[in-house]
Design a protein that fits this description.
Structural class of chain A: alpha/beta
Strand content of chain A: 5-15%
Distance between the termini of chain A: 59 Å
Radius of gyration of chain A: 20 Å
Largest sheet of chain A: 6 strands, parallel
Strand order of the largest sheet of chain A: 3-2-1-4-5-6
Number of strands of chain A: 9
Oligomer: homodimer
Number of domains of chain A: 2
CATH topology of the largest domain in chain A: Rossmann fold
């Protein structure tokens, strides 16, 4: 039994590592990216190049997309030049972009009308998780399709869960981002309070980082805040995109999320102050009055 | 060298376990509590009873207090019938109540004028940590005094850090509570979103509880929320007390903490709805529209 032809659209920091793992596993791989240069390493390692997303759709059995914003997803998938209209019969598309749950359902339904299967499967674990092939993958779609693509997802994921029907993967990712959003305020506020009270914030961490206040962000991002390291592990601009999707989805469900709204307001202030391309831990600067540094 | 006489004022859930460990370590122990009945087990195990806090002060070398609110601390320590005015010369007082950093400094200064040493040393770890003798202790005060009381604190603590001068222990505890406050919103909002979106919240936890959204509250309190178990590990009324202290202290330092203010507003709503004696995880009910259940 020959392996399916895999397509990968979106060779960014995450996509490059993920596609590399697919190649390592022996799958035939075809890639497309807006900037060809970013795909060079993969091409040197044997991946085929496609000049358009449509060309990927025409040739591949399983196509993975990992692009930036919901509007990019919409543009690539829909319309006469889109992936779905130009797919091989029976092809499977997996959108791993963090995107809108509503859009995920729309892609699924549009695909179904054309005999094409679509799954949503956003990830968490960041660039390090992608490099190590240890991403958490939150999938939404049909169970049989999930089983079919699982060997491919296993190339770069370790905690792979089918959360429910189309959109459920995106909804689960929103839960993840919602939990992080308010916690980032708490972590920044705790560290800003520590500094303002004249404490040694590093020493405060030794008291609080392992108890009831313990969190990934407190252990991993607070030390970066204190060291003034605001380099992006996760970009503020992307976090704002995610919070916006979550807020819109919550509004559609008549759910009020005041913590999320407050966090979004603060991050919007950071973006307005020129910090969109910094890491999410830079929110700390808003509390220490140094957003203009 | 004979062991110092230890006094313990405030035999609640926490105090009972802590005093028991002091007794286990072989220290002579004298106890006072408003309700004598709660001290019965300790008395049966050899602790001496004192009819008033003043009687404890008159007899003990090291006195630990673990009471409810800052006003209780003020009442027990200050005034002509207070601990400080009736202390043995050179006695050491350790207030382990979560209380105001400003009050902690006032007790320290008042004590110093009377030749008495005062430390603030609030704890985290809850009833389970107290029972297991594994509390985190965040101390403020003089380094020499800290060294002197360390053997006693070691009876029930494992992560014992002198954070700085008088008040620094309370300030550190505030950092802990500030981090928890916003995170509780994030955890509740993530779980409320999951439920509203038709996901299986338990399954969502398997995707998100170990990644970037990971926290003590997500792993330990979210499952209780989902199971409808709102029994107090930590009372909403005590959490509100702590947040109030933190907000006042932050205001004195001209520090704005919007996440904390938002969390306090939500918990105040819970208290107003009759949930003051429930656990902090009951905040979930506010998001699911079931505060009146």
């Amino acid at each position: 039994m020959s392996l399916p032809q895999i397509g990968f659209i979106g060779i960014g920091v995450m996509g490059k590592s993920m596609a590399g793992h697919v190649l390592n596993a022996g799958y035939p791989l075809m890639v497309y990216n807006r900037t060809k240069e970013k795909a060079r390493e993969l091409l040197e390692r044997g991946a085929l190049w496609a000049d358009t997303p449509t060309a990927v759709a025409a040739r591949c059995d399983i196509v993975i997309t990992m692009v930036g914003y919901p509007q990019d997803v919409e543009e690539i998938y829909l319309g006469s030049k889109g992936l779905l209209a130009n797919a091989k019969p029976g092809a499977i598309f997996i959108d791993m972009t963090t995107s809108s749950p509503m859009l995920a359902r729309r892609l699924y339904e549009t695909g179904a009308k054309q005999g094409v299967k679509v799954m949503d499967a956003p990830v968490s674990g960041g660039d390090i998780g992608a490099r190590q092939g240890k991403l958490s993958i939150m999938a939404g779609g049909d169970a049989a399709v999930f089983q079919e693509v699982l060997p491919v997802l296993n190339c770069f994921g370790t905690n792979i869960v089918l959360q429910g029907p189309a959109g459920a993967g995106q909804h689960t990712k929103m839960c993840n981002q919602i939990a992080i959003a308010s916690n980032m305020m708490g972590v920044c506020e705790a560290m800003a309070y520590a500094r303002q009270a004249g404490l040694d914030p590093q020493k405060v961490l030794t008291s609080i980082a392992t108890g009831a206040a313990a969190s990934f962000s407190l252990s991993n991002l607070a030390p970066r805040m204190l060291a003034g390291d605001m380099a992006p592990g996760f970009y503020i601009k992307h976090f704002i995109k995610d919070m916006k999707i979550a807020i819109e989805a919550a509004e559609e469900m008549s759910l009020k999320l005041p913590g999320l709204l407050q966090a979004k307001t603060l991050y919007d202030q950071m973006a307005a102050a020129g910090y969109a391309d910094h890491g999410t831990q830079a929110l700390f600067l808003l509390y220490t009055g140094r957003t203009s540094v």
